[in-house]
Design goal:
The complex is a heterodimer of chains A (about 475) and B (about 140). Chain A has about 475 residues and is α+β, with helices and mostly antiparallel strands. Chain A has helices at about 45-50, 60-65, 70-85, 90-125, 135-140, 140-165, 185-210, 215-220, 295-305, 310-320, 335-355, 405-410, 410-425, 435-445, 450-455, and strands at about 1-5, 10, 20-25, 35-40, 170-175, 175, 225-230, 245-250, 255-260, 270, 280-285, 295, 375-380, 385-390, 395-405, 460-465, 475-480. Among the domains of chain A are: about 1-45 and about 410-480, no CATH class; about 225-330, no CATH class. In chain A, about 40% of the residues lie in helices and about 20% in strands. In chain A, strands 4-3-16-17 form a 4-stranded mixed β-sheet. Chain A has a 4-stranded mixed β-sheet with strand order 9-8-7-12. In chain A, a hairpin with a 5-residue loop joins strand 14 (about 385-390) and strand 15 (about 395-405). Chain B is an alpha/beta fold and about 140 residues long. Chain B has a single domain, classed as HybD-like (Rossmann fold), CATH 3.40.50.1450. The longest helix of chain B is centred in the C-terminal third of the chain and has 19 residues, at about 120-140. The radius of gyration of chain B is 14 Å and the shape is globular. The relative contact order of chain B is 0.25. The chains are: A alpha+beta (about 475), B alpha/beta (about 140). The interface of A and B includes residues 64 and 138 of A.
Chain lengths: ~475, ~140
């Protein structure tokens, strides 16, 4: 709901994103939008607090960065530790890590689509507060709400089955995993796949049947040229666990290919903004800010040649046809890409479970420190995640650099917020609840996990500030 | 069947009160009772509550004035989104609206103003034990 008078705007309910942020919208003298930015306002400093700890603690420590995507941190962290030990985990361990990583992606994507974003799709961006929330969705679309719970539970149960618990599992360890999968566990997961796939297909159908209603949003929600980055496998296909970095431009030209993530610093620079604790990575050869790139589901499908599984590939073709085979530039289609990745994840989990080597009891390689620097990289739900550790010969951490998935998108999120604000807020009369919801909804497209990316600690707080041409705050929308 | 759901983060301190109570209860045998511990309440919890008739939620609740007092019903508002924090009330609403499952629930909270540490180990342990005994008696 929006209550507005001359000086104050209040939006309720709270923003549907993971974490806490502030948006400023700067108006010029004519009252139209000059600039708009997202600020992440809390700081935790995981990189610093890890110094002095043994490297073996890093997977458990860095998993605490987040309660939504701890598995992603565990995966990248253990890969960095593998790198420090100079070992490659056995095939069974690599497959099991892939399975838990995909389960994490499925449950996270389901959370975004069903619980955070679906009220916008079902009721529209201009719907009143009373309608545009999960409570109303439960009443009017209980089956959709039920599907969301079931699909998220599918991913969560896999994490719990393999990792022992749903949040902060400690089963993925340097060198591999701590125990093998039993046949009973395998069959339990396989038995849940038909239902999960049915829900995923149904949801995709719903999205495709309704997406035409949002032409204005598709055209203006972060719809601009940018670079895209993601991991691809040796065939150039979609990859979430291992592989090589690839950068493509908005015309689909491959700028960089086959990059070992260990050398990420040669390609990615990190700028620090004075008004946000979220760093702004950029493609180094193009410099800051021209080197803006996007990561995450949309970027992964833009950089990959194919998905590599039958049902996902069928939809991948439709996705790529949106822009005649070139990268899809509209950030609104992050939602579409997320649904395709859910289908891919379910298919791939089934494939991996049915591989004979996955059932092997050879699940861990052992070694001590063989290198003083180790980099781990994987695809988290929101994009490419880097863990970079430096250690003493005894394995004590002396330096940490984390590039979090959401951080990679910082420049693009800012560009998206500005584009939406300029498209919809065309004067103070346009400061409607629906338009301010759109300003936030563009951020929801990227599905940022701000607690991860800044390692934020704080009270739930999201604010939109509207400032006049003298930077004086004339309206403030507080949520939470 | 009854479910007792204890939630919180034991790494923080008194925030983990609910989980500690569940871990103590797991050392005993309560008839017809399902014990569930969690870091936080999530929508999937609904699936685990479909086969029960009554739910007790156990957690730590903020109070600046009544540290270590038991409060049976704190103000229970759903102030956040379905992201990091879900209240017992929202879980029960989800069960009612989505699964047509309406049942009684109670919230047992230990009041604290020190979520991130255990302020007084002795008193805290006593409170855990008192809650354990109380829940055992309720389950008889």
């Amino acid at each position: 709901m929006l209550e507005t008078n001359k000086k104050k705007i209040v939006i309720d309910p709270v923003t549907r994103i993971e974490g806490h942020a502030k948006i400023t919208i700067d108006l010029n003298e004519a009252g139209t939008v000059d600039d708009a930015r997202i600020h992440v306002t809390q700081y935790r400093g995981f990189e610093k607090m890890c110094e002095g700890r043994p490297y073996t603690e890093m997977p458990a420590l860095t998993a605490r960065t987040c309660g939504i995507c701890p598995v992603s941190h565990v995966i990248s962290s253990t890969k960095a530790c593998d790198n420090l030990m100079a070992v490659r985990p056995p095939k069974a361990a690599r497959n099991l890590r892939r399975i838990i990583n995909l389960a994490q992606i499925i449950q996270s994507h389901a959370l975004n689509f069903y619980h955070l974003s679906s009220p916008d799709f079902v009721y529209g961006f201009d719907a009143s507060k009373e309608d545009r929330n999960i409570f109303k969705l439960m009443q009017t679309h209980p089956d959709m709400a039920k599907d969301g719970i079931a699909l998220r539970a599918f991913g969560q149960k896999i994490i719990e089955t393999l990792g022992g618990k749903r949040i902060h599992p400690t089963w993925v360890v340097p060198g591999g995993v701590s125990h093998e999968i039993s046949n009973e566990q395998k069959q339990t997961i396989l038995s849940q796949i038909p239902q999960a796939m049915d829900i995923a297909q149904k949801t995709l159908k719903y999205f495709l049947n309704n997406v035409s209603k949002f032409k204005k949003e598709i055209d203006s929600f972060g719809n601009f040229p940018s670079l895209f980055m993601g991991l691809v496998n040796k065939k150039g296909n979609l990859e979430h666990y291992d592989g090589f970095l690839r950068f493509v431009d908005s015309d689909g030209n491959i700028l960089e290919n086959g990059i070992d993530p260990t050398f990420y610093k040669d390609y990615i620079g990190e700028a620090v903004e004075k008004d946000s604790f979220l760093k702004s990575p950029y493609y180094k050869p193009y410099g800051y800010e021209k080197g803006m790139y996007r990561v995450g589901p949309l970027a992964r499908l833009n950089v990959a040649n194919r998905c590599g599984t039958p049902l996902a590939d069928k939809e991948f073709d439709n996705f790529r046809n949106l822009n005649n085979g070139k990268p899809v530039l509209n950030s609104f289609y992050y939602h579409y890409a997320r649904l395709i990745e859910i289908i891919y994840g379910i298919e791939r989990i089934e494939e991996l479970l049915n591989e004979e080597k996955t059932m092997s009891d050879n699940i861990r390689s052992y070694a001590s420190i063989n290198r003083n620097r180790g980099v781990g990289c994987s695809e988290a739900p929101r994009g490419t995640l880097f863990h970079d550790y430096e250690v003493t010969n005894d394995g004590i951490i002396t330096g940490v650099n984390l590039i979090i998935a959401t951080g990679n998108n910082n420049l693009a999120m800012n560009a998206g917020v500005k584009q939406v604000a300029q498209s919809f807020i065309t004067g103070t009369d346009a400061l409607t609840d629906g338009n301010l919801n759109r300003v936030e909804a563009v951020i929801r497209c990227f599905d940022p996990c701000l607690s991860c990316s800044t390692h934020a600690l704080g009270i739930v707080s999201s604010q939109v500030e509207v400032r006049d041409h003298n930077k004086k705050v004339i309206d403030r929308i507080s949520r939470g | 069947m009854r479910a007792i759901v204890g939630y919180g983060n034991t790494l923080r301190g008194e925030d983990g009160f609910g989980v500690e109570v569940i871990q103590r209860l797991q050392e005993t045998t309560l008839a017809d009772t399902k014990l569930i511990e969690a870091f936080q309440l999530t929508p999937e919890l609904c699936l685990e509550l479909l086969d029960v008739d009554e739910v007790f939620f156990v957690d730590a609740g903020f109070s600046s004035s009544y540290h270590y007092e038991f409060l049976c019903s704190l103000k229970d508002e759903q102030i956040a989104t379905l992201s990091h924090h879900i209240s017992p009330k929202l879980i029960m609403n989800m069960l009612k609206e989505i699964y047509k499952k309406d049942m009684n629930y109670l919230i047992f909270s230990m009041a604290t103003n020190k979520f991130d540490t255990i302020y007084d180990q002795k008193r805290y342990k006593q409170k855990v034990e008192t809650m354990v005994q109380y829940l055992k008696e309720l389950s008889l």
